[in-house]
Amino acid sequence: MYGWIWRHLPGNVYVRILISTVLVVGVVFLLFQYVFPWAEPMLPFNDVTVDGAAEPLGTPRAGGAA
Amino acid sequence: MALRALVRTLSETCITIGLVIVLFVVYLLYWTGLRAAHASDDEIARLHKQWAQGPTGSAPAHEGTAGGTRDSGHDGGTTGGADELAGDGGAGDADSTAPGHRAGESFAVMYIPRFGGDWSKPVLENTATATLRRGLGHYTGTADPGDKGNFAVAGHRRTYGDPFKDFPRLRPGDPVVVNDGDTWYTYTITARPYRTLPGDTGVLKAVPEPVDEAATPFRRSGRYLTLTTCDPEWGSSHRLIAWGRLDATRPTAEGKPDALTREGR
């Protein structure tokens, strides 16, 4: 996979290193900005409330939190 | 040759998954903390700016009630004025559905010297996931700070700046100070944190009614504070609850209350 990407990058070694770095930074950014914030509420340490308290006024509850 | 490609792809996939997991841990332990610290500072700065510009926007809703009966009486007597209007309805949660705050917006700052002299967090309206990422969340429908009833606040134990990390260290007598721009409210913790199940919503009532009746902190209506967080630290099987009662009030203009000047710095 990584070999395949490397072979398909244009330019000489230095250009490829540069493009690879940009790709890695881009992937990390996407993970931190979108993927992790989406996945994080599914973990248990988000559930800090006792349920039902805010529901009479229709406050959204932490997604399916137990 | 095909086998070699298969093994290589499998290895690379495993390494990639491992790296993503490591990154996720970095995100949870450091990045959420950085983001939360930034967001909290922003909220507090915004509040101070808003308060400096004049009366708080939500004031009319609770100005009249906040003055009702001062539990302390020994300071804060100068606010006067509103006292006549308020009366003392006796109904514990008569004003507990204060409509004064917009969802997700901060309206007060909380100080808990037990958690550190410089520990201060904004209190935002509602307890949605996005709200709790920026600070503490005020259970919608519970009383406002200083009002009759129960001012209930939830906060993260871990991740997002670990605001309630030291929650189990709270002890009877610890001050919890809340400033809403007009007044410093000094609550005093009345018991060691109470451990309960996630569905124990009675702890939020105007006079808290925990499932475990032995833990009932108060018998009569009054001006109370409830803090909630998760337990164990990284889990969600239980909740920790701390209760306090309003001890003193002091107009913001008169400066920080004793509880902060004594233990802070």
From TrEMBL, chain A:
Spell out the protein name for this chain: Uncharacterized protein
Keyword list, A-Z: Membrane, Transmembrane, Transmembrane helix
TM segment ranges: 12-36
Biological source species: Streptomyces diacarni
Does Membrane count among this protein's keywords? yes
Automatic annotation (TrEMBL), chain B:
Q: Which CDD domains match?
A: Sortase_E
Q: Where is this region: Disordered?
A: 52-99
Molecular function GO terms recorded: hydrolase activity
Any keyword Electron transport? no
Query: Signal sequence: where?
Result: none
Which keywords label this protein?
Hydrolase, Membrane, Transmembrane, Transmembrane helix
Superkingdom, natural source: Bacteria
Transmembrane regions:
12-31
Protein name, per record: Class E sortase
What is the native source organism of this protein? Streptomyces diacarni
